[in-house]
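WARN no homologs supplied; continuing
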Amino acid sequence: VPPASQLHTSISQSYSSFSGPYNNSVLHSASSSVPSQGFVASSSHYPMPPVSSATYPNIVYPPMSTDNPYGQMPSSQSVMAHGHLNAAGAYSNQTRAPPIGQPRVPLGYTSASWSAPELQLAQGNHGSFTGSLPEANNTMSTGSPHYINQNIQSVKSNQGVASAATSSVKTSIVENTGKPITSSCLTQSSDSFLHEGMQYGGYVNNQASSSATPLSSSSDDEEEEDEDEEAAIDSSSTTSSASPVLNNYDTLEGDGYPEACSATSSPPPISSVPQTSKVSKSFGCGYPPLQPGYQNMTPLLPSPAMQPSNSGYNSGFSQYPQVYPTMNQLSASLGGLGIQQPENLRPMNLIQERNILPIAPVSPPLPNLNSDLKKLNCSPDSFRCTLTNIPQTQALLNKAKLPLGLLLHPFRDLTQLPVITSSTIVRCRSCRTYINPFVSFIDQRRWKCNLCYRVNDVPEEFMYNPLTRSYGEPHKRPEVQNSTVEFIASSDYMLRPPQPAVYLFVFDVSHNAIEAGYLEVVCQSLLENLDKLPGDTRTKIGFITFDSTVQFYNLQEGLSQPQMLIVSEIDDVFLPMPDCLLVNLHESKELIKDLLNALPNMFTYTRETHSALGPALQAAFKLMSPTGGRVTVFQTQLPSVGTGYLQSREDPNQRSSTKVVQHLGPATDFYKKLALDCSGQQTAVDLFLLSSQYSDLASLACMSKYSAGCVYYYPSFHHIHNPVQTEKLQKDLKRYFTRKIGFEAVMRIRCTKGLSIHTFHGNFFVRSTDLLSLANVNPDAGFAVQMSIEENLTDTSLVCFQTALLYTSSKGERRIRVHTLCLPVVTSLMDVYAGADVQAILCLLANMAVDRSVSSSLSDARDALTNAVVDSLSAYMSTASNLQQSSLIAPYSLRLFPLYILALFKQKAFRTGTSTRLDDRIYAMCQIKSQPLVHLMKIIYPSLYRIDKLTDEGAI
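OK structure emitted
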């Protein structure tokens, strides 16, 4: 077999430091055109960067380098603003209020009230459902932590629309025959998958090394840049001989709409039908606003309970007679903002108050929306914002001294999930937003996008409601009644047939690994859960072991026993039998069981102490490249031979240092480059590190961070001497083997124009300004996003965020999971504080602090966290009147902010003065970067249980 080419380890990269706007010494990334949210370097007030007065300008990004096979990638750094689209084609005439006594009903609708029908529960498991990443990136072989400066390229779009290019992948639609096409909608039950578990997350990807041409089955849903950008992204591999596979991420996601609704079609003619403007506002105090998506409800007639709401929710002069409501009536509709002091604004003296600690779990603040929108809004368990009241301007956000960002748990396990099968997935022709509960129906034939405000046609098929079997009621469709839905995507969303579930296990079998005894635990757990691995009849599985050599196993059907194939040439590793090393799970199940039973005893008397992890990973990459899938690596020591070998960098005498903590970044870029190659071939690498000595997790974790994998760490593992770690490994493996999984996934986040995303946190590869490439996605992975306000939100009273996750299920179905969140816009600083979500703020700041620790120093990160508390509380005290300036006063919403920051300081990731092993510190940082909010809060601020009150069932 001819030797495979070696990994290319030289690449020109540029660096920039972590950005942050918490003081006047803010660091701005060279790739960002706006001040980015970050950390303070001192306790002074932030600067207040000027807010652009231009109305939705076109954004032009610097050209993308063509020598990078992955394009430019933002991660843990500033990203050029995205989503600021000109309202091309949007109908901007404002609605005039009707005369007194006349119902306000759009044309084509009656004034009868309506209610959404309940979705029927699916009795069977329809396909594969599940409910579960761009920041940390750095590293060069110098051993010093760095971050890569990533310049993002966007597309000059026609008609002033930025980053909304029409896809080159066009789909045809069958002409309407006059008969409505039926579509199915199920509510999927996934109780069998509701297992709680922890898993690693990580950072994102920066500059890519040369790698194999990415392959994907994503098409119409999650990619929408230009073909020019894709030309820069796709390139041939320098690390593998695998055949290039067509990959056109951006063109696929951008054009999920049928040909009949392509961007080339002319917009609908302007009619005399009353239409809403960008947002639904009341133009007379006697007529309260109809929220987006609710203009078709029963009109509200004038009553004594109607009065103008506070600033930030309504605007415009009263044009009709006004009847003012009582205070209680108005507070009920507006949540009390600006009228009466809400509970979240009640000042609390943190020095004198004795009842600060919560006696019940802390719930996120509810957005101040009307009751109907609150019911339709996305669950905070899936989609959460640090501020549930969005400031109208960046200047107001700077005054509040609070970060603006999102916490995402997009693939989490759900008990009920509306699943929609339809030949037409309705999306905005301009910004590609999926239709959702917060759009406005102008009439039965047109709807207005709630992100870019463009007017779109309602497809004929969408007029039919499969639940009620009625026609002409698009506002009752399940897509418009649920903020979290999942679509069964058609072949238009694929570039190749969906890949099968492919699992490759790579075991360390050196002397150290055999002494730890992990093989017996892992093989036994895999035997017990072999039939529970997610997949179908196409599922494939393979095994590789390594010490100072690399061993492969032929499990082809028809053999009487497994065959071991040893490759000792680790400097130029190759696949001895490429077609026989990955076998069908069902066809070769008996051989697989024989191998798992034999492995724990196969290397009992080995004397090999070296570990050739790098060559084993190179072999795994070559084996998985044709299809993609999941590689699970078990490692017990420092790699000592072959490519990617490492040397110990830890000084045990510095574990308790209160000064500089070194070596938080990787020692080599080998594992990062290999991970980027794997990501391009839709392969994720999960790492299980079971070690009693320093193993340089800072370097090894890169292969999971940049390939959308996860990391598990078991310090001082021994199957006999450490039964606690053994039990933990068994529980983690059961969850790991049986939880849902999504393959060849991409995720895009969209937001109302005026808002921009500039930094992502998690484990993934950043393919464009807002498109994340996830080779694998699991229900235990969380992500964080930093945002800024680029343009004043003066023309809207509501903003929306939408995330769309396109993935291939383990059953081979292409699916799109969509979450949509709606929040109000406010003009008062007190309202901003009232809507502060202290837990979301803490988790976002923790992600930012990890980046600061790696790019700068641990002491800088700790100072930044302290300044974040000092500045926010100082800003509140300087704004609120009649407060004792000599006391520490905080709004009720932020009463736990100092406590949570103190708890964060005690975590292994940030603590000083206490003996902390370097691998323990790195693993804690990895958890912060990848865990969803609910898991991360349990780590930072765990629950306490009264032991003497525990029952036998709940006892430890």
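The first strand starts at residue 184 and ends at 188.
OK
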